[in-house]
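Provenance

Sequences were taken from public entries as deposited. Structures were produced by running a predictor on each sequence independently, with no templates supplied. The record for Phosphate ABC transporter, ATP-binding protein from Amylolactobacillus amylotrophicus DSM 20534 is shown for reference.
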Amino acid sequence: MKNYNLDETYIINPQKESTLSAKQVTVSYGTNHVIHAADLNFPRYKITSLIGASGSGKSTYLRCFNRMNDKIATVGGQIMYRDTDINNPKINVYELRRHIGMVFQRPNPFAKSIRENLTFALKKNGMTDKNELEMRLETSLKGVALWDEVKDKLDQSALALSGGQAQRLCVARSIAMKPDILLLDEPASALDPISTAKLEETLKTLSNQFSIIIVTHNMQQASRISDYTAFLHMGHVIEYDETENVFTNPHVRATEDYISGNFG
Ligand SMILES: Nc1ncnc2c1ncn2[C@@H]1O[C@H](COP(=O)(O)OP(=O)(O)OP(=O)(O)O)[C@@H](O)[C@H]1O
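Predicted structure for Phosphate ABC transporter, ATP-binding protein:
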């Protein structure tokens, strides 16, 4: 692996309203310091990709944004969301996750009906009105373009869906909670190209209503769907800018080598 100067960075924060601002975030697993990130602002109603080689810290960094590292790592720095630092130990993490939802690498529908997958958390959060629940169900499934495929089998098990359908169901389950921000950790890595294309299309549409931060290994995917891209190397954010600039005119050697395949 080439030695790059980790202090050589090029960070252009978007001149747009931010939904989340991360300041000097650090993460350690025991004595292993894996994230030392610069100050990044994530824009509202845009898609931001986190790219980088395996082990560069993308998932760890993403998990900071809804406190998913709490029990496994020590997190430092500030992550401002609606004027509150989400690292404050006093904040209600379950409430936070209603505003900042997450979709994981492997589709993980509950072993329940499609309807229950969508309404379970809503009911747990006190929504009892049947019409409202049905409306959320339909709107969320339409939001991920799954409604036409499942509207006649809402009471069948979600486990019978294909991988691509199950992943879109998981996105629908997240958006049913009407979060502000959707975090996605390599959501297409277990999907075939057709399901991946459908998911990407869904995310592009959803970015009109939600701010999206996505970890992806797939550089074509990052360049296809995201408005902004952050390149991570060894836990450092090396470059952050509009996606087009990162891919066509990278400013730092490590970024250039990574996107041109000369890395390592
Ligand atoms: N639960 C954990 N305990 C200890 N170390 C961990 C843990 N999770 C990740 N790490 C370490 O933190 C570093 C960053 O890992 P992370 O999974 O965030 O990288 P990544 O860029 O998302 O990688 P990949 O693309 O392979 O998923 C790696 O060195 C990894 O071994």
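Residues 29, 32, 34, 52, 54-60, 72, 217 surround adenosine-5'-triphosphate (CB under 6 Å).
The domain at 10-111+179-260 is CATH 3.40.50.300 (Rossmann fold).
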